[in-house]
Write a structure and sequence with these properties.
Length: about 300
């Protein structure tokens, strides 16, 4: 990396792990900006408490810190939450991107890494999707993320930015912060509640948190990734029914309750050819990675009992 790095939303699910990885490996200072943070300076991480819409403070942080690279991790990633509160979705998933882009323009920072989502593809005709598929989002969340992608591309064309857009699929690996189906099933099993499945034959691409963090950190100092849009996934589809069975194998008392599909029973998983070619790493095989994660959660639970 040639300059200092700002991670907005650096206390969130993925953002916090990106900060930890960068602070362990980077030779440059890492700046963390989060509304829930407390101002402070560590050995390699400078932390600022701030709202993403406080443009004056954000601009000061970026100018004083001589920021060249921004990893923008602020957003509302829950599809149900975005449906229930589309205004909050717009503010966090679109307007926050505009705030960061404008601040970058004013302080002449060039590089932005943005976490987009598989939800921009919508209900695809075939399960395996590459980046050339025409996006047809079917959710508020997917629509707003697609709008943010276009906003980033427009700023890139007008102001010479070098953005990187990573379309992240279903992430697992942090029981405390993750909101996906794997951790949902685990929390249900630990609490002695049934694992409720609507349909269950639908296939999704589950990618480990470690691999997602690698995608972001490998993008930082890789000029080949500039202006690229890449899927970040495992490249393998796993059915929701299979996930529930994995959890039950580790928690034999867990009951699986099948319910009628809710209309979302399409399948999707990523073509990750571009990610492997540009970022040069192969992701964890999901079935082994998921089983390892489940067992780690079970072990930590046993240690606390």
């Amino acid at each position: 990396m040639k300059g200092n790095v700002l991670v907005t939303g650096g206390l969130g699910f993925i953002g916090s792990h990106i900060v930890n990885a960068l602070s362990a490996s980077s030779q440059h200072e890492i700046f963390l900006y989060d509304v829930n943070a407390h101002d402070g300076k560590g050995e390699k991480v400078v932390t600022f408490q701030g709202d993403i819409f406080d443009c004056d403070k954000l601009l000061k942080v970026m100018r004083d810190g001589e920021i060249s690279d921004v990893i923008h991790m602020i957003g509302l990633a829950s599809i149900p939450s975005c449906k229930e509160n589309p205004d909050a979705s717009y503010k966090l998933n679109v307007a926050s991107v505009q705030a960061v882009l404008e601040t970058m323009r004013l302080c002449e920072a060039e590089h932005l890494i943005f976490p987009s989502t598989a939800a921009i593809y919508g209900a695809t005709n075939g399960p395996k999707v590459n980046e050339e598929v025409d996006p047809k989002p079917s959710t508020v969340y997917g629509s707003h993320k697609l709008a943010a992608e276009q906003l980033i591309r427009n700023f890139s064309e007008k102001y010479g930015f070098k953005p990187i857009i990573l379309r992240v699929f279903n992430v697992y690996g942090d029981l405390n912060k993750e909101q996906g189906v794997i951790s949902l099933f685990l929390r249900k099993a630990i609490a002695g509640e049934p694992l409720i499945i609507k349909g269950g034959n639908q296939v999704r691409d589950f990618v480990s948190l470690h691999d997602v963090v690698r995608a972001f950190t490998h993008s930082l100092d890789n000029t080949e990734s500039y202006h690229e849009t890449m899927n970040v996934g495992s490249g393998i589809g796993v059915a929701i029914n299979e996930i529930a069975e994995m959890v039950r194998q580790s928690f034999p008392k867990a009951q699986i309750k099948q319910e009628a599909p809710n209309g979302d029973e399409y399948s999707i998983y990523a073509d990750i050819s571009r990610m492997k070619e540009i970022l040069r790493f192969a992701p964890t095989q999901p079935r082994s990675g998921i089983r390892t994660f489940i067992e780690e959660c079970k072990q930590r639970r046993s240690e606390r009992v």
